[in-house]
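Quick board copy: two proteins, each given as sequence then tokens.
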Amino acid sequence: MRSFGCPRCGAELFFDNSLCLTCGSAVGYARDRRAFVLVSATAPICADLDGCGCNWIGEPTWCLNCRLTRTRPADGDVAGLQHYWVAEAAKRRLLFGLDELRLPVQVRQGSAGLAFDLLSSTAGPVTTGYLNGVITLDLAESDDAHREGLRRAMDEPYRTVLGHLRHEVGHYYAETLALAPGWQRRFRSLFGDETASYATALDRHYTVGAPPDWRERFVSAYASMHPLEDFAEVFAHFLHITDTLQTAAAFGVLHPTGLPVHDPRALAEASTAEVIAKAWIPLAKALNQINRSMGKPDLYPFVLGPAVIAKLAFVAELVADASR
């Protein structure tokens, strides 16, 4: 995340602001300018400002982020709508990160493009997942207690709404980029054969568990389940790393490294191994120790071995190529 300033008075703005607290100006994030602008007749705030707290400029009525949402909770679903606000805030951060990487984002039309079904499980079970360009999110994941309970039950070191969205969008880019001609052979050499039975892999994972040596080859135990899950996990971590490095650089908490840490797109062009060694590992260690100083668990409880770094390098090369 970059730092932002009010277009009228220059005061600091944060990504979720729709009002400058210094001069009182109504502001909105203009995706085409990658900056905040003053709200006006020619730059109207998104029509979903009251519906989900969206502070993006409309294009012309709804912004792209809100147009990506295909389904949301019913107006009378109070709990679902509360969780919907949390999910949409996370989705705006997801899309911002994709834009910073210059990755293609197309609103779904017919059978092509990306869409989000943000579903309330107050009326029945919802399964978070991805299928043919549609990302489904169980909005109960927006509830801290519910999500933490599942994290513990499934023995996961990390579980957030933004993490879910980054993982699921990884499936979208696996389908549209990584498995395209020219990339599929390298994908299979690193991640495995994506045509292997997903149902069989899922049953094996939840019956037997991850292989004993999974830490040597995968970024998480879940990544060991199937090649497509492996790619989605690595893609999510690529977004975690580039976004957090950009934020650290923007707010002056990162030592100079000589790397373009302020620009995720430029980081995709850099040596991934160098980025990990010189920038990410030192920052992750510091953030983990800061969390421990506050009595909280590690912020980034993962170990990136050589096999995982090679997979991250593949994602970085894929992103750099797609953004051209």
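And the next:
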Amino acid sequence: MSKSVLITGATRGLGEGLARQFAARGYKLALTGRKLEDLESLRARLQSESPQVCVRLLDVSDFDAVPIILRECAEELGGLDIVIVNAGVAIAARGGQGMFEQMRATIDVNLTGAIATAEAALEIFRKQGKGQLVGMSSIAALRGMPGQGAYCATKAAFNTYLEALRCETFNENIKVTVLAPGYIDTDINRSLGSRPFLVSADKGTRIMADLIERQVGFRYVPPWPWTLVAQFIKLLPVSMLRKM
């Protein structure tokens, strides 16, 4: 029987790439996003590879809708083996420049919406007796980067929340996987002036799908060189960090 995977934020970037990867591997797909026409277009492209594709409109900052949509997808696919909490935004916003609303929107999607999705997934996993929760973090969780304070904060906070979940589910048949991408070539980072160690979206999402299937606990993506570079970033003085 084919396994099933639900991906939030599936119509763009890493979400779309992961949908393609798992379709090619024969998974049933539940894809959510904020534009129905994009979801339907993606479904049409993946139907020839995936045994079943269901799509649902979902803005994860509509917190009450999140558990309803996940339950609908689980019912349609006969359960959910994997839930990938991927939906996210990256809005450049420097502190003290009147951009609190943009910061709040970032927090609503990247942290509160992500936690709402994870909570709904855990309820489904416990009911069916198994499951794998995948949280999408970032190398930005390592430090507070200029112009990305809210974004960095959400990723760091989500990391900590997922670590707590890993402890809480330790004796259950539930796996918690956290992936922290470096620079993968998607729209969310193409406006940046520098993208060191850049990899293509296809390569990046292929590595991610492999790591998810291996049910790893935590990995940078790609693991090399970011596992080493991350240790260096943690030690950078503010005088150097502010130039990044």
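Board note added afterward: DSSP finds eight helices and seven strands in the chain.
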